[in-house]
C-alpha cells in the first residue's frame, strides 16, 4: 500500500445523474482554474451532456507548496485510486465514463484507464463489485503524440537552463508573454511546469506504472467497452496522432474505423487545423461537441429508448 494520495478530484460542473462523467486531465503545468477548462465543463453541463470532474495535482495555485509528482509510477496509481473510489459511489450508472486528457494529461489519462481495467494494478480496498469493464468507456486524447512515438519527441528538460526552458515554453504557446516576462509569475508557473515535463521523461511504453510488461500491440484490445478518439492542432502531423488507434487494436485513419457501426473502437482523429497546441482555448464549444459525439447515445434519450447500443 502506498502513502496518502496527493491527487484531488474536483467537480467542475454537474449535469443530471445518469449522464456521462468526464474526467479531465490537464496539460503540463495546467490547472483547473483556467478559463477554457471551466468553460468546457460549463458547456458540457449546460447542454445536458456530462458532469466534468477535474484531476487536480499538487504544486500549483493554492497547492503550490505541496510536493509534485516525479514519475508515472508514483502518479498513475494515485489517480486511479481516487477515480475508482468516486466511481464506486455513483448512485446510478453513467451513460459513459470519459477520460479526457490534454497534452501531458493524455498520457496520464490512458495509463489511468489501463490501471483501472487491470484490478491487480490498483488498490481494491472494500472488495466490492465495481467493474469499469461493465460500463461504456471513452478515451479522448488531445494535443498529444501517440505513446508509441512519444519519447523521441520530448526535450531533455533536466538538461535545460531556465532561459532555454522559457524559450521552449514560449514557442509552444498557451502562456501569455506578459506572464513569462513577469518574475513573480514565472516563479509560480515554472516549478510545476518543469516538474511535469521531467515527469514525461520517466515514461515507458513497454512497461506499465505498476512495473508490468505491456502488450503494446493493443493495450485495450481485450476491453470491448473502450473506444478512443484523438483531437489535434496544427503543431502535430497526422502521422503523430494516428498510432493512438493501435491502443484499441485498430488501424489509424482520420475517420472512425467503421462509420456505420455503433460499436466502433477507433472514433477517428479530428484536426483543429486553424490553431496550434492549445486549440482548446479558441474552440471550447467545438471540443465539447467532439467529446459529446463519442457518447453512446444522445442526451435526449435513455438507454432503454436507444435502438442500437455502443459499448
Automatic annotation (TrEMBL):
<comment type="similarity">
    <text>Belongs to the thioesterase family.</text>
</comment>
<protein>
    <submittedName>
        <fullName>S-acyl fatty acid synthase thioesterase, medium chain</fullName>
    </submittedName>
</protein>
<dbReference type="InterPro" id="IPR029058">
    <property type="entry name" value="AB_hydrolase_fold"/>
</dbReference>
<dbReference type="GO" id="GO:0008610">
    <property type="term" value="P:lipid biosynthetic process"/>
</dbReference>
<dbReference type="Pfam" id="PF00975">
    <property type="entry name" value="Thioesterase"/>
</dbReference>
<dbReference type="InterPro" id="IPR001031">
    <property type="entry name" value="Thioesterase"/>
</dbReference>
<feature type="domain" description="Thioesterase">
    <location>
        <begin position="22"/>
        <end position="243"/>
    </location>
</feature>
<dbReference type="InterPro" id="IPR012223">
    <property type="entry name" value="TEII"/>
</dbReference>
Amino acid at each position: 500500500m502506498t502513502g496518502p494520495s496527493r491527487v484531488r478530484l474536483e467537480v467542475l460542473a454537474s449535469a443530471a445523474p445518469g449522464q456521462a462523467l468526464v474526467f479531465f486531465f490537464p496539460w503540463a503545468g495546467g490547472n483547473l482554474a483556467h478559463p477554457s477548462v471551466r468553460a468546457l465543463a460549463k458547456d458540457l453541463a449546460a447542454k445536458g451532456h456530462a458532469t466534468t470532474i477535474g484531476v487536480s495535482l499538487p504544486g500549483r495555485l493554492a497547492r503550490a507548496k505541496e510536493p509534485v509528482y516525479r514519475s508515472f509510477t508514483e502518479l498513475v496509481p494515485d489517480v486511479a485510486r481516487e477515480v475508482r473510489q468516486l466511481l464506486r459511489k455513483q448512485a446510478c450508472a453513467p451513460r459513459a465514463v470519459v477520460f479526457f486528457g490534454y497534452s501531458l494529461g493524455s498520457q496520464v489519462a490512458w495509463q489511468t484507464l489501463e490501471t483501472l481495467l487491470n484490478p491487480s494494478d490498483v488498490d481494491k480496498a472494500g472488495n466490492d463489485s465495481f467493474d469499469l469493464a461493465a460500463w461504456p468507456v471513452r478515451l479522448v486524447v488531445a494535443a498529444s503524440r501517440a505513446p508509441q512515438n512519444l519519447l523521441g519527441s520530448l526535450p531533455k528538460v533536466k538538461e535545460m537552463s531556465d532561459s532555454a526552458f522559457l524559450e521552449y515554453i514560449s514557442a509552444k504557446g498557451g502562456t501569455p508573454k506578459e506572464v513569462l516576462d513577469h518574475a513573480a509569475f514565472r516563479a509560480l508557473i515554472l516549478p510545476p511546469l518543469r516538474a511535469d515535463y521531467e515527469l514525461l521523461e520517466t515514461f515507458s511504453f513497454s512497461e506499465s506504472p505498476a512495473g508490468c510488461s505491456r502488450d503494446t500491440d493493443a493495450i485495450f484490445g481485450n476491453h470491448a467497452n473502450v473506444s478512443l478518439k484523438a483531437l489535434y492542432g496544427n503543431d502535430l502531423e497526422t502521422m503523430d496522432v494516428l498510432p493512438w488507434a493501435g491502443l484499441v487494436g485498430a488501424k489509424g485513419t482520420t475517420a472512425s474505423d467503421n462509420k456505420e457501426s455503433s460499436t466502433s473502437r477507433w472514433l477517428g482523429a479530428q484536426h483543429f487545423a486553424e490553431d496550434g497546441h492549445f486549440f482548446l482555448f479558441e474552440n471550447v464549444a467545438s471540443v465539447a461537441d467532439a467529446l459529446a459525439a463519442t457518447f453512446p447515445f444522445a442526451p435526449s434519450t435513455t438507454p432503454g429508448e436507444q435502438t442500437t447500443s455502443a459499448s
